[in-house]
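for ur thesis appendix - Alpha/beta hydrolase. copy paste whatever u need, i formatted it the way the template wanted (i think)
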Amino acid sequence: MHSTTKEGKYSYFEAGEGTPIIILHGLMGGLSNFDGVANYFPQHGYKIVIPELPIYTQSILKTNVKAFAKWVKDFITYKGFDRVILLGNSLGGHIALYHTKMYPEKMLGLIITGSSGLYESAMGDSYPRRGDRDYIQKKAQDVFYDPAIATPEIVEEVYAMANDRIKLIKTLTIAKSAIRHNMAKDLPKMHVPTCIIWGRNDNVTPPDVAEEFHKLLPNSSLSWIDKCGHAAMMEHPDEFNRLMHEWLKKLDVAHHLLTED
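the 3d part is after this line
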């Protein structure tokens, strides 16, 4: 992965100049999950910023969706951004949605893929339990349509997490928090333009979850990627970028029309 900047309590990757797109990774997601996005958009007038979310570093009282959303707002303020586009996958999508609910004035647009926030079992059954490597490898492979995407490095990362007692407790705390912060009632009141990109073969947050987001969010568009699981930006980075860029161009046009006198 590209080098990250460390400043005070923040550690993040940044590239490009222009409208800021802040990317929120998932529970199991490293920053490298977004290499495709990070390499593409800085060439097209966007500043990509990927902070390392404090998923395992905050006190247990601050290990929940709402606290992470507040953390994101503090980060946006720290960076001096006026309004931003948030892109989130899985838990990152849920945090982005919750941030949008709490701080709509900070938002230009929202992009979610494989997001939790509606589905009762939150992250499906994807968060790991202690177990042998075979079990964990199968769990990691289930996240993708193509099991080969679950590289030995990814499996190892999940395995290490599942065998770290503190991390495991925090993971379960977050999973419970994701269920508690179900957003079905909030979504109809959220008018921020939202782009939903979903894998047709997502086993963790199945396609009907995407349909539900689309139905409940008043200003949303929904695009599908075939032969694609829970992490579209990793499995089909070019197609993901294409769909996201098309939507961003429309968003820019709409934004200019709104801001012109």
